[in-house]
Amino acid sequence: MFDGAGEEPGSSAAARGAQAAGAGPRRILGIAVPTLGVLVAEPVYLLFDMAVVGRLGALALAGLAVGGLILAQVSSQLTFLSYGTTARAARRHGAGDVRGAVIEGAQASWLAVGVGSTIVLVVQVFAGPITRAIAGGGDIASAAESWVRIALFGVPLILLSMAGNGWMRGVQQTRRPLAYVLAGLVISAILCPTLVHGLLGAPRMELAGSAVANLMGQLVSGGLFVRALRRAQAPLAPHLTIMRAQLVLGRDLIVRSLAFQASFVSAAAVASRFGAASVAAHQLVLQIWNFLALTLDSLAIAAQTLVGAALGAGNARGAQGLARRITGWSTVFAVVLAAVFAAGYAVIPRLFTEDPSVLDRTHVVWWFFVAMIPVAGVVFALDGVLLGAGDAAFLRNATLGSALLGFLPMIWLSLAFDWGIGGIWTGLVAFMLLRVVAVGWRALSGRWARVGAEVPGRLS
């Protein structure tokens, strides 16, 4: 029997809606903090993996970088398995249908296995041409290909973990997913130096050892999420109607993700045209921005979970109040972060580099970065609200429109008129401002707050 759902089985829809909508700081942080742990655990492990492999030399590190890029690209586009499943499971949970919420997780897990297995087959066939296209052939491509061919078998397991995180967030279980993810990463962290460098009597596998360590950790995490599904005692058989509905929601989220990818890949390509110092500064500040985005995303996921539950319980007014409250807290938190980074203008960049030319370029974009942080506090929170409501089609259109009208034109104009990375980051600011206008208008309209256990197929 599934336990810890956060509701008494006999509680009324009104009580459940009031409970979700009235969530205070303790409950919101109880969702956000473990979620943040899940979000940052993988990036932290990747830094550790790079440090271990880096001791083998530049060739192995370059092979890992190319291979890791390929693995990330083939799996990161499928985040609907977590975000979309959270939206659907949260609605079910809010309506008191815990069994239905778990079924959403089971169907997302079937999709994870099916799509993940397809990715493994396709990329195994084309691994050679793909690595050569990215690395330009030679020894780097060969090293990357050997790593990718092993690591690819972890893709279905990565997607299973995404699906597991999705439905468990939906039923407001966030501590167990963190434990499952950490268990896998601990196994990987132990095996990585052991297999790469042949410690404790293990064979010295060098770069291949990194891939095997990743795979073993993913097997542990994926297996724990599957066990959680089995213990929930809900029907696990494939249900095509539910999977089709999940794919409709997933389609919108994939298109939105591709808009992000196109924009940031274009930005990196143009930054590289302005010289090594510019591209290094761009990537340095962008990595800090990405880490802050993960931090703010933890509150957005709390908003997604609780808003979905309130709407599932039929409490539209409570969901709107919750949206305002979490957005306010996220904005205040973001303002504090902006103040910290403004104060660290001269110090923080030096933690990453002492190169005078890179520091000079970093200081050019630093104030763009600081100015965007409070805007991000609003945008990310409202993204979570609208995802919780299943309003993925609007988010897709808002992201595409903001990229096409703001970010991409400024990126390419920067190249044409030699505006440098200041022009690129002006485009990123425009992107964020257009998004805050779009999601702010949508949130104020209230048109997203459709109640019921089912995520609406299309919102308009």
TrEMBL record:
InterPro entries, sorted: DinF-like, MATE_fam
Compartments in which it is found: Membrane
Keyword Membrane: yes
Protein topology in the membrane: Multi-pass membrane protein
Transmembrane segments: 28-48, 60-83, 108-127, 147-167, 179-201, 207-226, 253-276, 288-314, 326-352, 364-386, 398-417, 423-444
Gene Ontology terms, MF aspect: antiporter activity; xenobiotic transmembrane transporter activity
One GO CC term on file: plasma membrane
Pfam families: MatE
KW Transmembrane (keyword) present: yes
Keyword line: Membrane, Transmembrane, Transmembrane helix
NCBIfam families in the cross-refs: matE (TIGR00797)
PANTHER family in alphabetical order: PROTEIN DETOXIFICATION 44, CHLOROPLASTIC, PROTEIN DETOXIFICATION 44, CHLOROPLASTIC-RELATED
Family in the record: Belongs to the multi antimicrobial extrusion (MATE) (TC 2.A.66.1) family.
Protein name, per record: MATE family efflux transporter
